[in-house]
Write a structure and sequence with these properties.
Helix content: 10-25%
Structural class: mainly beta
Largest sheet: 3 strands, antiparallel
Low-confidence stretches: none
Mean pLDDT: 85
Strand order of the largest sheet: 1-2-3
Oligomer: single chain
Strand content: 35-45%
């Protein structure tokens, strides 16, 4: 009897520091992040709306289902509007 065991080393984390830049005074800013797996795969987006003092006016998560990354970006932009 033989066993077949596949051992995969965990991928190294790729950490990227992100800097937020405030909008001009009396404006608000909507930052959106999206994720889509492949072309027309499972996708979602989220966003946060803040003023120039970084006060949060709202945030949103959206599960979009199967879609392209372009459409996910577009839907996220329209949702944050």
């Amino acid at each position: 009897m033989s066993f077949s065991v596949n051992i995969h080393s965990p991928k190294a984390l790729n950490i990227k520091q992100v800097h937020w830049h405030s909008p001009i005074i009396s404006w608000t800013k909507c930052n959106i992040d999206k994720a889509a797996r492949g072309f027309s795969g499972p996708s979602a987006c989220e966003g946060i709306i803040r003023d120039h003092h970084a006060n949060v006016y709202g945030c949103f998560p959206v599960n979009i289902g199967n879609n392209t990354s372009f459409n996910v970006e577009l839907i996220g932009s329209m949702t944050g509007h």
